[in-house]
Amino acid sequence: MIHAWLDDTPIGRVSVVAGDKGVTQITTGAGIIDLPGRYDPDALADVLRQLAEYFAGKRREFNIRLDLDGATEFQKAVWEATAEVPYGQTVSYGEIAFRIGRPGAARAVGGALRSNRIAIVIPCHRVIGADGSLRGYGGPSGIRIKRALLELERSYL
Question: Can you name the residues that pair with 2 across neighbouring β-strands?
Answer without folding.
Answer: 18, 38
